[in-house]
C-alpha cells in the first residue's frame, strides 16, 4: 500500500511517497493541502500527516455500537434530566462540528499565552501557522457564546501529538461544557447580592483589568457569586460521576491551573486502588465572556475525556480498541442500553513483538533538541495501528566523539491476529529507512 510521508523544505510541504520500504526519488512540493472540500496553504508550521488525516470524520462518539457513544449518551442524558425549564432540557448539544479551527479559536480566544507550551508544534497538528486540528473542544466555546448560548455541551474528536502506549492515542474524544447564569438566576432568592464587585463597570468591561492573583476568585467577581458557582459546579460533576461509577465512588478535588478558568480544579476518583484524574473544570475567565458579548453572566466550564471513562467503565485495556472494526469487539456494545453494565471480554490475546531502534543523531541535533513526537508520528504513519507502544529506552553521548544517540523500543501487536517476527522485521526496516531519510540519522 502506498503511503504519503510529509516532510518540510523551503517552507513548502515535501511529500515523499514510498511503497513498502522504498522512497520515491521524485518528491513533490505542494503549496496547499486539501482537507475535505477545502484547500489550505502550507508553511513551516505544517506537520499534519496522512495517517492523522485518515482519522477525520470517523465520529466514533456518534457510532451507536462504539463504547464512546454509550458514555457520551449517559453524560448527555444526565445533563438533559438534571437541567430543565418548562420540562425541556436547557443544555444544547453540538457533536458534529468540524475539527479544523484557527489558532485564534484554539488559543487566543481562551487567553492561552503566546509562549504557552500547548501551542508548540511538538504538541499540536498544524495545517499551517494559523490553522490546526483542534486540541480541545473548548476551541468552540467563544463562538457558541457569541451566538448567544448560555448552556451547551461540545462533543467531538481532538488531536494532540503524544507518546504511544495503551492509554495514549493522537486522536481522542472530549465533552466540554459551559453553564452560565445571570444575576437573577444565580441569586434568585437574594436580589441584594451581585455577580460583580462594585468597582467593575459592566457597561465597559474591557476597561477593567481582571486579576487572578487571588487563588479564591477573579477580582471582578464577588466572593458570594464565585462560591455559589463553585458549589453548583462541584455538585453537578459529582452527580455525573456517581451516575457513571455508582453512588459510593470516592472522589477528591485538586486545585489546578487552566488559562481559561479561575479558580480551577481537577476531579479525581478512587478507582481500582488508584486515584484517577477524571476531568478539569473551573469558573470561566470573565474576559472570555466579555469578548463574546454582553457581560452580565458568570459561568463554569469543564472538560472530560471519553476514552478514559470508557476504558475504566468497560475494562478496555488498550485505547486502540475503540477504533477497532472487529465484529467481536463491536458486538459486545451492540444494541446495548447506555446504562448497561458491560465488561469487555478479549476476543483473543495476541503476543507482542518488540524491536529496538538505536541511532546517532546528526551533528546539528542533540538528545535535548530532538522532538520525540516527530519520531512517534513517523512510526505510526508507517506501522499504523499495529504499533502498541514506543518508549525512549536510552540516551547516550559518546565520551570521545560527543555524538548523541537515542534508542527507542517499539512494541508491535495486532489486535486481530498474530504477527510473525518476519513481518515485524520488515516494517521495522521501513521505519529505519524512513527515519534515516527524515531526520538524517545513522542507525547503529
Automatic annotation (TrEMBL):
Residues 348-444 form the FDX-ACB domain. SUPFAM superfamilies: Anticodon-binding domain of PheRS (SSF54991), Class II aaRS and biotin synthetases (SSF55681). Keywords: Aminoacyl-tRNA synthetase, ATP-binding, Ligase, Mitochondrion, Nucleotide-binding, Protein biosynthesis, Transit peptide. It is found in: Mitochondrion matrix. The keyword Protein biosynthesis applies. InterPro entries: aa-tRNA-synth_II (IPR006195), aa-tRNA-synth_II/BPL/LPL (IPR045864), Fdx_antiC-bd (IPR005121), Fdx_antiC-bd_sf (IPR036690), Phe-tRNA-synth_IIc_mito (IPR004530), Phenylalanyl-tRNA_Synthase (IPR002319). It catalyses: tRNA(Phe) + L-phenylalanine + ATP = L-phenylalanyl-tRNA(Phe) + AMP + diphosphate + H(+). Residues 71-346 form the Aminoacyl-transfer RNA synthetases class-II family profile domain. Its EC number is 6.1.1.20. It is an enzyme of class 6 (ligase). It holds the Pfam family tRNA-synt_2d. GO terms for molecular function: ligase activity. Coiled coil: none annotated. PROSITE patterns: AA_TRNA_LIGASE_II, FDX_ACB. PANTHER family: PHENYLALANINE--TRNA LIGASE, MITOCHONDRIAL, PHENYLALANYL-TRNA SYNTHETASE. Belongs to the class-II aminoacyl-tRNA synthetase family. NCBIfam families: pheS_mito. This is phenylalanine--tRNA ligase. It comes from Vanessa tameamea (Kamehameha butterfly). The gene is Phers-m.
